Amino acid sequence: MAPQVRALGTFVLATFAVLAGFAGYWQAIAAPSLSATPQNPRLFQDDRRALRGRILDWQGNVLVESRPDGSRRLTVPSLGHVVGYRSARYGTTGVELAEDAALSGTGGPLSMDDLLRQVAQLPGRGADVRLTIDAGVQSAAAMALGTAGGAIVVLDTRTGAVLAMASNPVIDPDGIDARWSALLADPAKPLVHRAAQGLYVPGSTFKLVTAAAGIDLGIVTPATSVSDPTGETVIDGFRITDAERPPRATFDFAHGFAWSSNVVFADLGLKIGEARLREYAARFGIGTALALGIDTSSSSVGRTRPMSASLLASTAFGQGELLLSPLQVAVVAATIARDGDVPRPWIVAEVLARTDAGPRTLRRNEPTSLGRAVSAQTAGAMRALMGLAVEDGFSKAAAVPGVRVGGKTGTAQSVPGQPDHAWFVGIAPLDAPRVAVVVLREFGGWGSEAAAPLAKPVIQASLQATAR
Amino acid sequence: MVTWRMRGRWLEALLLAVALLPLFLGTALLAVTWERALGDARFWPAYAVATAVGVVHLALVIGGHRGDEVVLPAVACLAGIGIVLVTRLVPDAALRQSAWLALGAIAALVVACGPWDTRRLERFKYAVLVAGIGLVAVTLVAGRDLNGSGDRLWLGLFGYVFQPSELLKVLLVVFLAGYLSEKREVILVAPARVGGLPVPPLAYLVPVVAMWGGCLVVLVVQRDLGSALLFYGTFLAMLYVAIGRVHYVLASLAVFGMAAVACYFLFAHVRLRVEVWLDPWIDPQGRSYQIVQAMYSMASGGLAGRGLANGYPLYVPAAHTDYPFVAFAEEAGLVGSLALLLMYAILVVAGLGVALRARDPYRQLLATGVVALIGFQVVTIIGGNVRLMPLTGVTLPFVSYGGSSMLASWLMVGLLLRASHEEAVAAARA
Q: Given the DSSP bridges, would you call strands A406-412 and A435-441 parallel, antiparallel or unpaired?
C-alpha cells in the first residue's frame, strides 16, 4: 500500500499548493483593487482612526466636517450630491470619494508632523479640501430652484471653476444607510446627481452649438436674411414648427436665434451636415465625460450614423437623439464667454494639510483649457445673439437691471404625456463675462417661463461673488 | 502494551519549544495592542493550551511512548495559533475553547498511552459501525438547531452540546480501516463477468453504496454539505490506498458527482452556496455579503498582514467558525497564510510517515485515514475560504472555534500516535 500512501500524500500536498496559490492571488494580486473598492468597510475604520479632513468652500467656509463619532456634518444641504455620501454598506461618492486619499490621510504622510504622529501611533490627520464652490451663490441657486426637480450650475467663465451646483431632489448624506431603500424606491430618483450626471434633451439651448458652427463655418452671419412665411417646414415627412406667433415672413438669423426658430435651425443643420455638426459638438466637449473631479456623465449627440435628414434637422434645433448634462450646457456657454476657448470645469480648488502651524497647500488645481471650439469672432457674434435673446427674445425674464445678460432658453421634450423640461443658459456681464448660469427644471414647461426667471437671482448673486 | 519506561523524546521537546512560539508571541502582541498585562485573565486560555500541550509531552515521556515526535509539535503549533485567533476574535469564548482542547488532549493521551491495543478496534469494527449509525439516528431524531440555520446538527447532553458528525468522522476512519484491511484481498480478486461486463465484487459494492447513501442522508436530511464531502472523500482516499485501483475510485467519484449535481438542482441552499461562490458580486449586500467581506478581509492583509488585533476580520460574519483562515490571513498576511498551510503540510507529511513506516495493514490504513481526513478537512475549509470551492460549514482542525471538532481532531492525533507507537514496539521486537 506504500505507493498509494505516497500518491495520496502528493495529492494532498499538491492541493495545499493550489490553496497557497489562491491565497497569494487574493492577498497579493487582487488585493489593491479589492482594498480600494468604495464599499469596503475598512476604508471607514481607517477614517475613525484618522481625523478626516474638512471640505471648505472657496472662501474657507466649512461645508463638511466630522463629528466626534466619525459621521460627517454637512452645513449647506444643497451640496449633498457634490460632497457625496460615505456609507460602509453603499459606498462613497462625490468629493468624499474623489479626494478620499487626501481627506483620510491615507495618501501617505503629508508632513513631518504627520510622519511623527504615525510613528507615535497617534491618529493621523486628513487634509482639508477647498472647493471652488461659493456658499453664497450655492444658496442662491438652491433657493431659486426651491423644491422643483432639476439642476442649476454656475461656472466662473474666466477659470471654469464651479461656483454653484444644485440638484433637486437633493440627498442628505448624513445617515443615508437608514434611508437607502426609500431613496432607491423613490420614483423621483433622488440618488441621481442631476447637475453633473443627469442627461436631458437640451432643446433649443443646443442652438448655441449649431449657430456657433454655422457662423464659424461662414454658412450664416447674424445678418443673413431668412424666409419663413408659414412658420413651419416639412423635411422627409417630418413637420417642424416655430414657437413665435404670428410667424414673420422674412427676418435675419439673429432674430431667428432670439425667437428660437426651429425652421431656421433645421435648415442650417442640413447645410452644416452631420460630420461637421458632430465635430463642433465634440469640440465643445460633448461625447467625453468632463473631468470635473467628481463623477460626470458624458453628453452625446446620438448614436445613429449616418443621420437621416429629418434626424439631422431635429438635432440641429436641439431634439433628435441629443442628451446633455446641465454641466455640459454650462461649458458651452462658458466657451462662448471665453472667446471660443473651452474651459475644463473643476470643483476642487486645493488640498490643504492641517499642521500645528496652520494650513499648508499640498496641491493646488489650476484652470485648464480643453482646446478651442470656435474663433474669437464667432464667439463674439454668439454673445451678441445671446444678448439679443434677452433684450428682445424668449430669454427676457432673465434680464438683470444694470447688467447686460446674454441667454438662450430651451424647451425639451421629456416623457410622453408629461410637460417639457425647461432650460435656460446665460452669461453675464455680456461685455466682459464672468459667469455662466444654467437652469434646468424637469417637467417645468416653457424655458422662457419656467427656467429663465430662476436665473435672475442666481446671476445677481454670482456677479456679486465674482466682483472682487 | 506501553512499556512504562521513560524515553527522552528530545526531538519533540525541541520542536515543541519552537512550535509554541506563535502562541506566546501572539499573546504578547495581543497584550501590547490591547494594553493589557500578560497576566490578564483574557490570556489564561492561551497559557492553558500551552500547559496542556506540555503535559501531553511530559506524559508521553513518562509513559515511555515510542511514537512519532513531529506530530505533537505540529498540532501544538496549530492549536497555539488557534487559541490566539479565538482569543482575538471572540475573547469570551476562548476559555471554553481551551477547556475543550484540554479535554481533547487528555483523550488523545488516553488513546496514545492507555493500556489497550488498536487490534481491539479492528476486531470490533462492526460495533464501531453500529455506534456510528446509532449516532446519526439519534441526531436525526433528537438533533437541535443551535445557530438558527434550520439544520439540526447538535446533540445536547447534561447541558453541553455536541456535534455528532465530528465524532462520526473518527468512527468512520476506525471502521473503514478495519473493513478495508480485512476485505482488500477479496476486493482485489478479478471481477466476475456478466455478459462480458466486469462486475465489481460485492465487498466493494456494498461499502460504496452504503457510503454513498449515508453521505446523501447527511447531505439531504442534515443539509451538511461539508461533512458529506469530507466523509466521502476520506472513504475514497482509504479505498484507493487499500486497493490501489484508480478506476474504482474514479467510478465512485463519478457516482458521487452525479448526486452532487442532482443536489444542486434539488436544494436551494446548495444552489445558493454555489452561486455566491461563482459570482460573489451578484448580491454583495445580501446573500453574498459574507463571501465579499471575506475577500476584502484577505485583500486587507496583503503580504505582511495588518498585525494581530489591528485588522477588521470581524467584518466577516462568523469569522471564528466559517472563515478562520481569512481572519488569520488578514492579520498575519500572505506570509502567515503560507506558514499556516506549511504547518498543515508538515502534519500531513509526519502522519503519512507514520503510515509508511507501519507494517501492519490495519495501522497503516488507520494512520492514512486520519491524515486524509485532516488533510481533506483543511482543503475543504481553506478552499471555501479562498474561493477554490463553495464554502461549507467544516472547521479548520485545531484552529476554528468549536468544541466537538477540537475533541475529534485530538482523538485522531491520539490514534495516530498510538499506531506509531505500536509499530515502533513491534519493530523493536522483530
A: unpaired
Point out the residue among B293, B303, B387 whose CB comes nearest to the CB of A27. B303
Span A3-41, pLDDT tens digits: 999 999 999 999 999 999 999 999 999 988 888 787 888
For chain A, the structural domain boundaries read 196-343+371-453
Cross-chain residue pair B298–A26, CB shorter than 8 Å: yes
List the one residue out of A461, A200, A439, A426 whose CA is nearest residue A334.
A426
Instruction: Please name the amino acid found at residue A44.
Output: F
Give the ipTM.
Answer: 0.93
**Is domain A196-343+371-453 given the CATH code 3.40.710.10 in the classification?**
yes
The Cα angle at residue B398 between residues B395 and B400, in degrees rounded to 5? 40
Amino acid at A92: T
Q: Which residues of B touch A28 (CB under 8 A)?
A: 302-303, 334
Task: Report the chain A residue with the minimal C-alpha distance to residue B342.
Answer: A16
Question: In the beta sheet, which residues pair with residue A225?
Answer: A252
Predicted confidence (pLDDT) per residue in B329-358, tens digit: 999 999 999 999 999 999 999 999 999 999
Nearest CA to CA, how far is A448 from chain B (Å)?
A: 46
The chain A residues in contact with chain B (CB within 8 A) are 1-9, 12-13, 15-16, 18-20, 22-28, 30-32, 34-35, 37, 39-42, 45, 89-90
Q: Are B293 and B407 in contact (CB under 8 A)?
A: no
How far is A19 from chain B, CA to nearest CA, in Å?
A: 6
All three cell numbers of A67 = 463629528
Report the distance separating Cα A85 and Cα A90, nearest Å: 9
Q: Residue B315 has what DSSP assignment?
A: G
